[in-house]
Amino acid sequence: MKILGIGNAIVDVLCEVSDDFLEKHSLTKSTMKLVNEDEFKKLLSSLKIKETISGGSVANSIVGLSQLGNTVGFLGKVNNDNLGQKYEEGLKKENVQYLYNKKNESVPTGSCLILITPDSERTMCTFLGIAGKISNNDVNENDIKNSDFIFLEGYLWDEGDPKKAFDKAINFSKKTVMSLSDLFCVERHKPHFLDLVKNRLDIIFANEQEIMSLIDAKSFEEVISFSKQIKKKVIITRGEKGAVSINKDKLDECDAKKNLKIKDLTGAGDLFAAGYLHGLIHNFSEKECLIKGTELSEKIIQKIGARI
């Protein structure tokens, strides 16, 4: 495999809501909040479902890479329940090798309620279910060794079993890519993420908000300076300002297109990563990788959902 993604196997449930709905339920726009099963059901009870898709951040990227013709796999934990079955079928339909054998578990398959407001922003409420209980026993050493890159998501990182799964994957990987995923994740795990970024990862994806929070930066110049110091490849999406790649001392930039008919920002970062990594696999220049990432990102935000 070119790339093996390891992440939360989450079924996305897309709903359109008003800003008042977010306010009523004390939800912060554009962030992800973890909820328990009861909270998830309560929120969903008053909503009309628009679409249900096999999701999860890295899984979205892996599907994007598969659609571009790359040989890819995904590892994420589901239960042997109805949603788990749908999840596996959804990935196989997209020609993704699904590297997890479902078992009957006491905890259900994870779900993410994606609330889309009229301004196209998405706010997520995630019930991790069994997805958050991935352990080192679920990670196959040979699958890691047989992949050129592994791609991890910050959403999955947590103390205990998930941390052990991360450690095992990184230890056996040729090259490790990770997305910081969300401001919520960064602030929750700041010391650990900083250690990963500085010492254990080869390529880091982040948006401007996430990377600035990680290093407590007051300006984007500080982010550039930090990225050059750590001598890693740091790729940062900046919304309307485009995207930046800092590779050791070299800085490349790509502008974002103006006046796009944005419908839903779900998956913008995931598909950006897919486009960038596609370029990397096929030996594109750094600038061309950014352009390909931006192209896919722009495509996905002009439709509902995180799949092209």
**Main sheet strand line-up:** 6-5-1-9-10-11-12-13-14
Total domain modules: 1
* SS-derived structural category: alpha/beta
Approximate strand percentage: 15-25%
* Terminus-to-terminus distance: 22 Å
Shape: globular
Q: How do the helices and strands follow one another from N- to C-terminus?
A: EEHEHEHEHEEEHEHEHHEHHEEEHH
The number of distinct β-strands equals 14
Portion of residues within helices: 25-40%
**CATH homolog superfamily:** Ribokinase
Task: Characterize the structure shown.
Strand 12 and strand 13 form a beta hairpin. Helix 3 crosses helix 11 and helix 11 runs antiparallel to helix 12. By secondary structure, the chain is of the alpha/beta class. The chain has one domain: Ribokinase (UDP-N-acetylmuramoyl-L-alanine:D-glutamate ligase, 3-Layer(aba) Sandwich). It is built from 12 helices and 14 strands. 38% of the residues lie in helices and 22% in strands. The radius of gyration is 18 Å and the shape is globular. The strands form 2 sheets. A 9-stranded mixed beta sheet has the order 6-5-1-9-10-11-12-13-14, sandwiched between helices. A 5-stranded mixed beta sheet has the order 3-8-7-2-4. It starts with a strand and ends in an 8-residue tail after the last helix. The model has no long low-confidence stretch (mean pLDDT 94).
Secondary structure topology:
Blueprint: E1 3-6, E2 10-16, H1 19-24, E3 32-34, H2 37-45, E4 51-55, H3 57-67, E5 72-75, H4 82-93, E6 97-98, E7 110-116, E8 122-127, H5 141-145, E9 149-153, H6 161-172, E10 176-179, H7 183-188, H8 190-199, E11 203-207, H9 208-214, H10 220-230, E12 233-237, E13 243-247, E14 250-254, H11 268-281, H12 286-300
Parallel strand pairs: 1-5, 1-9, 2-7, 3-8, 5-6, 9-10, 10-11, 11-12
Antiparallel strand pairs: 2-4, 7-8, 12-13, 13-14
